[in-house]
Amino acid sequence: xxxxxxxxxxxxxxxxxxxxxxxxxxxxxxxxxxxxxxxxxxxxxxxxxxxxxxxxxxxxxxxxxxxxxxxxxxxxxxxxxxxxxxxxxxxxxxxxxxxxxxxxxxxxxxxxxxxxxxxxxxxxxxxxxxxxxxxxxxxxxxxxxxxxxxxxxxxxxxxxxxxxxxxxxxxxxxxxxxxxxxxxxxxxxxxxxxxxxxxxxxxxxxxxxxxxxxxxxxxxxxxxxxxxxxxxxxxxxxxxxxxxxxxxxxxxxxxxxxxxxxxxxxxxxxxxxxxxxxxxxxxxxxxxxxxxxxxxxxxxxxxxxxxxxxxxxxxxxxxxxxxxxxxxxxxxxxxxxxxxxxxxxxxxxxxxxxxxxxxxxxxxxxxxxxxxx
Length: 373
What we know:
The chain is of the alpha+beta class. Helices cover 25% and strands 28% of the residues.
């Protein structure tokens, strides 16, 4: 396993120059190599995400907020730091005090020509799997986390039709594992991926259930899993992130590399008393049905394999930014979740789901060997 102290040292080297860049002008480069060889060990892989923003010169003031990896778990993901540079009048690393989500905030004054921002983050990941056939002794979920991950949000209510639906789905299921699996299977069977939905969807689960329109993308279908689970007391959370590499298991629909500007993806977890946090991704099962190749159904072997795997395991060719919901940006605007760059100029809010008009580009690469920052 990659040594955690050495990873933290690497993160410190990356973060320190970034902190010095919080004022005017570009961040200074560093010539220090990472203090370890980031070749895969014990399944660990290291990725670099590069977000490039080049705003149209609007003549007035402008601001952008770029999400960066902030969730840390020894078992499967460790952020290693973020660097940023550009011609912003001011830039800083900001952390949401409630959720811990991090972003780079940059500001330009009126008259700034061709506002630009470069953000680079490095992250170590490892495939995650929980053996659901072997219950184990796990420490209880702390009270604060239980409250947070069973609480309603603006788009994830836990009463009314949401709770009624969850109770119907789990009728006859005994124990939290059986209930969580029942919700997962119900979503796989009853929903569809809708390619016409912009971005990853909105996650308005009450609307989905009220209209019986169970079509959407990951922020809709996995939010439905989280909301239904929370409504019956199962702690659950969405992770908002981005795909960073092709799938090593042959699923071309479940990976991306190089230009990952349109590769945002969210995933879900549920807390089970005898297993801890258990990964789930019913939305990707529906993505395989729609996109892997023409003519697939839930009965197709390639879909059935994904369906079995994605309750209990994730391939970590994906990086989470955060698991924040109803997040208030530093200027007071509140978003249901933070997964895309956000921006505002003198004409108003920039369209985060239109990278070309915004404009931004996100690239990923896997690092091997000794790497200079």
